[in-house]
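[Meeting: bench + compute handoff]

Bench side (C.D.) handed over the final construct sequence. Compute side (W.E.) agreed to return the predicted structure before the next meeting so the bench team could plan truncations. Sequence as handed over:
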Amino acid sequence: MAERNVITAAGLGIIAAAQAGIIPRVKFTSVRAGSGAHAASEDLSALTGLAAEKARFAVSDVTALGSDTVQIGALLSNAGVSAGFRITEVGVYAEDASGQEALYAIFTKGAAEADFLPANAAGNESSIYYRCNVAVSNAAQVTAADDHSAYAHVTA
């Protein structure tokens, strides 16, 4: 499977809501990892969630890379992971106009290229720091959810 990175229909709706002033800014809420497989012909923009979500993580940081792109950072830890898995899909979630979390963007890889997150057995802690570049309408209108499980900050 080839690597694919797609803004979903919900993500485009969030961008449109921010541009129209319906929401004050794009608020990234979480990053989720899964082991789902997606066919090359699958329309990833229509997805509303990961195919096989395994874990959820707080957004650690959001960095503007220009006027219309930000980099989302998240520490993917194996805390609470009872069975290791290949991270073949990563979803970036943001708050929509109704205040609900929605799949903003999805990043996929084939199992052969995907990172492996091992089980946390006998205190064997492991983590992977992920950075995902995503398009936004205005990088100045972006924030990260305030989650006490990770330090979140925004840098320009």
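W.E. noted at the follow-up: The two ends are 34 Å apart (CA to CA). C.D. will use this when planning the next construct.
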